[in-house]
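Predict structure. Chain length: 468.
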Amino acid sequence: MSTETTVVVENAGPARKRLKITIPAAVVDARIAEAYASARDEVQVPGFRRGTAPVALIEKRFGGAILEELRRRLLTDAYSKALQEHKLQPISEPEVDESGADLEVKRGKAIAVTMDLEVLPDIAMPKLEDVEVSRPVAEIEEKFVEEELRRLGYRFGTPSRIDGPFENLDRMVGKATVRVKGAKQDPYFETEECLVVVPDAEDNGKGQVLGLLFDDLGAKLAGRKVGDAIVLKTSGPEAHEREELRNAEITVEFTPGQAERIAPSTPEAIAEQMGLGSVDNLRSQVRLSLESRRDQEQRTAMREQAAEWLVEKVSFELPEKMSGSQVARNLEMARMRLMQQGLEAAEVEMRLAEVRAASEEDTRKRLRAFFILARLAQDMGVEVSDAEVNASIVQMARGRGARPDEVRAELQQSGKLNEMALAIRESKVLDRVLAKAKVTDMAADEWNKKVADKQKALAERTAPKKKG
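Prediction complete.
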């Protein structure tokens, strides 16, 4: 009978390993005995001195919690052993094959689990001194201040219930039913609390519902009212994190149950509510905020250019098909970056819908950049401290008007602290790349045209060809 945990490592594709871990029954039995003995010494059972309660009683009262903790430790120990013995360098959390796993901790029973692991690929890096980027330069014009005051007017405005007809920026909540052609389950998803916002005029009718982008949302909602059945149709993004939605025909049936319209606050009322004393002080505060946002966006644009340069210069094999977890991780990292910029929740969701709707080519570039930056992080010794994570949480909380402990608890509960750390690590790596790069200033208008032209060319290149 085997008394050693065994680990078999197989290639599961480019930059990916499959670990097959078997913890024999003898090891499980010994660790169960140790766990109950340890618990017996630590827990206090009424009627017994500490350390004298019968093991059977300990097992009956605390067995579930003890075995669950033991299961976690057994898998963690086996995973750590696999990394050490096979010199693996993971760059993400392992994906456990739940369907084929036998994870029950029980006397006389072995534990078997298979997990896939992303590892650092063998990458040859170019000279970072050759990186070239443009720095968008813009002045905060008076029209930008006016536009921000308009946004603040709605943010601090007074909501009132309406029945319709709906207009720009009206908000509604209602039942949404999602149907996916060819899906095994129908409906695919339902919710009674779907939030929908009528796109602003500047959005040209484009908006998101349940994370999906609709070019005609404004037209579908304009003039409708509470109780109307609104049908939206789209094709699932070709690189959606849920693989069954990729390129699928999706129909969303939305019936608003209630709606509200915001009566915007005046600058005078906003200044008073923010404790700024006067509209002049409010305008000064808005200008400072816009300058800070401009600097952040400027840095983001430069980081994106550096990442694109690396993707173009570094060649290595990627998995033929992106997994849902890879796409989901990239989306969550994007969410963390957007939230750190202090964007409002509705704008974050809109930006994420745009990222989700990007072409598969663009999504694969993001995945390629993830591997490259992970390699650079290791080569440069870049790590993320708890203090840096906490600083980002404070910044995020300030932008949302929430307490840092609330934001941390939310991220921890949803398991997104890891994505936050990864996003911070990537920013630190790219800043080091930029420190060696050749930087050229470019007027913001010229920069925006360059970006628009590139997006148009990409859309034309990746658009499906018409049949016939």
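Summary: The radius of gyration is 27 Å.
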